[in-house]
Write a structure and sequence with these properties.
Layout: E1 24-30, H1 36-40, E2 48-53, H2 61-73, E3 80-85, H3 91-97, E4 103-106, H4 123-128, E5 133-136, H5 139-145, H6 149-161, E6 165-170, H7 174-178, H8 182-196, E7 203-207, H9 221-238, H10 241-246, E8 249-252, H11 260-264, E9 271-274, H12 282-297
Parallel strand pairs: 2-3, 2-9, 3-4, 4-5, 5-6, 6-7, 7-8, 8-9
Antiparallel strand pairs: 1-2, 1-9
Helix pairs in contact: 6-8, 8-9
The protein binds 1,3-dihydroxyacetonephosphate (13P).
Residues 5-8, 20, 25, 53, 208, 213-214, 252-255, 273-277 line the site of 1,3-dihydroxyacetonephosphate.
Keywords: Isomerase
Protein name: Triosephosphate isomerase, chloroplastic
Subunit structure: Homodimer.
Length: 298
């Protein structure tokens, strides 16, 4: 399952592909040793992270079995963290069949301790099911479901308090980019996370311009790098130099096997959150390994 979690519900499947399926989204981070800064930095765990989310309405037990079988057979370089994010209802199936080399994420969770919140899934329950990660603030949660910045920040803080690692999503809509508000929007979303989060050690930032998600309109490497640098500068000014250099910032939005290498060459792109391409069999592994290849070549 590589999960492409497409974050949202779109498909159900895990892994890569779906037309961005629903949900597995993938972050892929790599730590690229290609630059000295990365080589010597302590950025995150070893390597990049690729996460996929997939799921929702498109997935079935059968399609997920196939994705998991593919993922189990894929050859992925060891220095890349790979995470798949199936829909809640398939987490147990994935956990019981997926190789331990790939970790499991949920696509969302409740904002606080479990209780009488019908239909919600708590961080404690995710831990109980073997999840190590949760994706929070995906654009579909923000703009389709209507979750507010502050609410998402509180979710992140609570998930971290329960020892879940958080893939914290930010990103501007097309009209916001066209109005020259990209940085304002991203910084406001960052501030909302910072207002609740006290330790960034287990946080990965996923920059996903809304206009690039599931549209096949990928941001250019320069557009993505520009925002990643700005977010790192924001960390320097508002949190610390150490958090700025150690936090992995991954890119999401129409990443595929053909564009991942150029994106990965950018200094501040530490991995990817992959939707549709994570459901296309070997393409997900190609995305993971293209990063590593680049690193080795460098
Ligand atoms: O956010 C994403 C998945 O949830 C990205 O999806 P795509 O890679 O299909 O654009």
């Amino acid at each position: 399952m590589a999960v492409e979690l497409s974050l949202a519900p779109r498909f159900s499947g895990l892994r890569l592909a779906c037309e961005r399926a629903p949900s597995l989204s993938s972050p892929l981070f790599f730590h690229r040793a290609c630059s000295q800064r990365r080589l010597f930095s302590t950025r995150g765990a070893p390597g990049g992270v690729v996460a996929m989310a997939g799921t929702g309405k498109n997935g079935t037990k059968d399609s997920i079995s196939k994705l998991v079988a593919d993922l189990n057979g894929d050859k992925m370089e060891n220095d890349v963290d790979v995470v798949v994010a199936p829909p809640f209802i398939y987490i147990d199936q994935v956990k019981n069949s997926l190789t331990d080399r790939i970790e499991i994420s949920a696509q969302n969770c409740w904002v606080g301790k479990g209780g009488a919140f019908t239909g919600e899934i708590s961080a404690e329950q995710l831990i109980d099911m073997g999840c190590k990660w949760v994706i929070l603030g995906h654009s579909e949660r923000r703009h389709v479901i209507g979750e507010a910045d502050e609410f998402i920040g509180k979710k992140a803080a609570y998930a971290l308090s329960q020892n879940l690692k958080v893939i914290a999503c930010i990103g501007e809509k097309l009209e916001e980019r066209e109005a020259g508000k990209t940085f304002d929007v991203c910084f406001q979303q960052m501030k909302a996370f910072a207002d609740s989060i006290t330790s960034w050690e287990n946080v990965v930032i996923a920059y996903e311009p809304v206009w690039a998600i599931g549209t096949r309109k990928v941001a250019t490497p320069e557009q993505a790098q520009e925002v990643h640098v700005a977010v790192r500068d924001w960390f320097k000014k508002n949190i610390s130099e150490e958090v700025a250099s150690s936090t992995r910032i991954i890119y999401g939005g129409s990443v595929n096997g053909g564009n991942c290498s150029e994106l990965a060459k950018q200094e501040d792109i530490d991995g990817f959150l992959v939707g549709g391409a994570s459901l296309k069999g070997p393409e997900f592994a190609t995305i993971v390994n293209s990063v590593t290849s680049k690193k080795v070549a460098a």
